[in-house]
Amino acid sequence: MPVPRHRLVIPTLLAGALVALGCVAAPQAPAGRPPAPAPTTAKKTTKGKTPDPNLDGTDTVEEFQSDVEAARRLAEEYWAGQFRRSGLTFRPIAELIPYDTEGEVDCGGQGLGLNNAAYCSAGDFIAYDANWAFAAFRQIGDAFIFYLLGHEYAHAIQRRLSIQKQFSIEQELQADCMAGAYIGDMEKGNRLNLADGDLDELARGLEAVGDDPGQPWFAEGAHGTARQRTTAFTDGYTRSLKRCQLS
Asked: Is residue 66 a contact partner of residue 142, using CB atoms and an 8 Å limit?
């Protein structure tokens, strides 16, 4: 039986750019409690590859890597809190692996392709094509990185909660909802700052990653139409996890 893996496949070039998501900010700590740690500057990863810096744009590799690490750190902070409130023990993913060659990263005997990101249940890791993600980061903005990690981390949470939908589209739209809840709740908790217009432009980005017209909803690998994906993300962003039907 093939090992389940979940992919977020986004075109290398998208029409329109997303305005940068604001920096990650530490909230004010309640009285009697130590302050939450401020995001730290990410160091270059020792696993996988560093994106090719010789691409058009103004954002740097260091900024990209810092956002990737911040998105992972906040996702783990968010889900650890959700699990704790539910009386569950949270376990973060084993690894976050960038790669730059097709098949370089193996998931249950299958090499991962280029121009995508995936959660691999076999090794409990998230892997992403570093050059593709960096190019998208430059064109779309850092909002893309927080959505990308939020969506893939949602698949890891689905596995931890033993959620397995009948059709892939149900699994993917739930992950979009969970990514929206993660970003929305962290913004409401002053852990993430969104610049004016980010949500509208992120919605336009989500429209660009919908399934092609005519894709059957029950097809293996279906992720949902542009409208379905945007609606799922927005539901999570505005009304948190109660809209994501985790129970």
From this structure: no
> Would you state the structure tokens that stand for residue 165, as one six-digit string?
């939908």
Contact 25, 191 (CB under 8 A): yes
Three-state secondary-structure class, residue 221: coil
Q: How many residues does the chain have?
A: 247
pLDDT per residue as tens digits for the range 130-187: 999 998 888 877 888 899 999 999 999 999 999 998 888 889 999 999 999 999 999 9
| Per-residue burial over 191-221, b = 16 or more CB atoms within 10 Å of its CB, e = otherwise | bbebbeebbebbbbbbbebbbeeeeeeeeee
Q: Which residue type is seen at 3?
A: V
- The span from the CA of 240 to the CA of 238, in Å, is 6
**Model-level pTM greater than 0.85?**
no
Residue position matching structure tokens 């989500």:
206
Q: What is the pLDDT of residues 108-119, one digit of tens each?
A: 999 999 998 999
Tell me the backbone φ, ψ of residue 117, rounded to 5 degrees. -130, 150
Domain boundaries, the chain: 50-243
First to last CA, the chain: 26
67 near 137, Cβ under 8 Å?
A: yes
